[in-house]
Amino acid sequence: MQTLDAKSVAGLFPRFADRFEKEREALIELDSKVGDSDLGLTMAKAFRAASDAVGALDAPDLATQMKTAGAAIAKAAPSTMGTLMATGFLRGSKALDGAAALDVAGLASFWDAYANGVAMRGKAALGDKTVLDVLDPIARCFKAEAEKGAPLEVACEAAAKAADEALEATKLLVAQHGKAAAFQEKSRGLQDAGGTVACILAVELNGFMKAAAAS
After folding, report:
1. From 16, 35, 99, 110, which residue has the greatest number of CB atoms within 10 Å?
2. Residue 73, number of CB atoms within 10 A of its CB
3. Alpha-carbon distance 36 to 42, whole Å?
């Protein structure tokens, strides 16, 4: 498979919403170790709102879907992580402006814009133990797969693997931002909560692509 049209891509958002609802308690527990304990609630609410908003659109293009998702997340979850996710989708939507279908190159551009938007909004750098430490490997993986001419399902599987490996690597880092930064060395050994959210996005995208390829 080389491309997905906008109608097909719309089905990705209910998948995100369902997964974050299932992971709500796990994310709350993870966030409670060095955070505010609200991440699970925030992400469940954010992605349900995004799913509802995108689902209500009438024959939208890819950029409009992503922009709508970002706006819905910003409204439903005006927390730090909600704002970062909203920013990612809003910046990513600009990278898909004018695209009639989603391909690997489009995903590379989307995730690059997403990661850069989050970095700028959150004033984070690689190694700070934030969501960026997983978003950046996802973006770089899609770029590499695009350069190889990989099919969509192959690229998405590679990105999910890269995200999982990057999330595992966050356990070695010390938090530099937010409430987690106050714990310093106590944050070492824990996977980053924000990075977990990014990993879920990549894993669900991979699952979505596998289902689409099989249908």
Report:
1. 110
2. 29
3. 11
